[in-house]
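Re: that backbone. Tokens:
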């Protein structure tokens, strides 16, 4: 099974219509710490996990392949089987003191089943990854031990993630931006600017900015530090109209579902978010390799490459 989105995962700079008008990040998310990336946010949560006594972590089988490597630095890593969208309660053999990562995938997971599992298992340190729906009711109100979300996958910023630790006030130093931009974010910001310029020029290819994007991602993967959010992204979080962006994403998903391209891919299933606040991007569950190749070809254009979020052949939906 594979999951593919026609939306390019590499963002350009913010469009003017999404800037201003209220409903900023700070209107939506209260009392959160801000970091450069989801990885930095998780590193910043390490003291709380250590205080809890967690030495082992359970990860869902459908997860970014780099995350088991990341968590392996701190924990013994175990995997658990669950329905992709938690249609039923996950079967996790976690013992007291373990940590468990629960992922709200594309804002389409069962919030009720996730929260029910958290409430029934207070003996574990529960981590909710809200990256695919950072402004959902689940993300804002979860009883998980901590909630984090990378923001740069949804918002047009080069870096940014928030962290909320249950029962703890945000550390003051983590509510303000860093003095300068870390290396990976600097590369990504340059790439975003180049992409914005390329989209306005017929003679500008995507090679230069994609190389910068990949270089920035590699630097992020290799980073071992806790980096705070950059000054640029911090200021953008005050400007960007989150409500407008989410409504625009929800409209994209609706239009995609009725598009000729979607109808051409008959054997695929569209992932639909629970609510507008969960809108991330149009996405398809694709079972057959031939359909996957056809979708990639159909959605590829000069400045947009379809993003693949999941690829695990032994998982049936």
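Recovered sequence:
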């Amino acid at each position: 099974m594979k999951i593919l989105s026609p939306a390019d995962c590499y963002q350009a700079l913010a469009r003017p219509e999404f800037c201003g008008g209220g409903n900023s990040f700070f209107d939506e998310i209260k009392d959160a710490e801000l970091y450069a990336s989801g990885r930095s946010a998780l590193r910043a949560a390490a003291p709380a996990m250590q205080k809890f006594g967690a030495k082992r972590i359970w990860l869902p089988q459908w997860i970014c392949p780099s995350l088991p490597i990341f968590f392996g630095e701190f924990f013994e890593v175990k995997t658990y089987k669950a329905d992709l969208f938690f249609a039923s309660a996950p079967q996790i053999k976690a013992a007291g003191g373990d940590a468990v990562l629960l992922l709200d995938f594309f804002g389409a997971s069962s919030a009720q089943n996730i929260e029910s599992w958290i409430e029934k298992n207070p003996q574990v340190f529960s981590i909710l990854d809200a990256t695919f729906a950072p402004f959902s009711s689940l993300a804002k109100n979860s009883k998980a031990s901590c909630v984090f979300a990378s923001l740069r996958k949804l918002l047009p910023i080069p870096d940014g993630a928030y962290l909320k630790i249950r029962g703890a006030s945000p550390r003051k130093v983590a509510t303000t931006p860093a003095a300068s931009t870390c290396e990976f974010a600097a590369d990504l910001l340059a790439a975003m600017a180049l992409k914005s310029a390329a989209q306005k020029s017929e003679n500008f290819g995507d090679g230069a900015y994609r190389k910068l994007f990949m270089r920035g991602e590699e630097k992020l993967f290799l980073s071992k530090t806790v980096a705070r959010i950059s000054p640029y992204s911090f200021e953008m979080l005050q400007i960007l109209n989150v409500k407008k962006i989410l409504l625009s994403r929800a409209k994209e998903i609706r239009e995609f579902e009725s598009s000729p391209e979607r109808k051409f891919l008959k054997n695929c299933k569209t992932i639909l978010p629970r609510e507008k606040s969960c809108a991330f991007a149009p996405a398809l569950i694709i079972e057959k390799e031939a359909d996957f190749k056809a979708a990639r070809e159909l959605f590829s254009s000069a400045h947009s490459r379809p993003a693949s979020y999941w690829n695990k052949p032994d998982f049936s939906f």
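Residues 313-317 have pLDDT under 50 and may be disordered. The longest strand covers residues 2-8.
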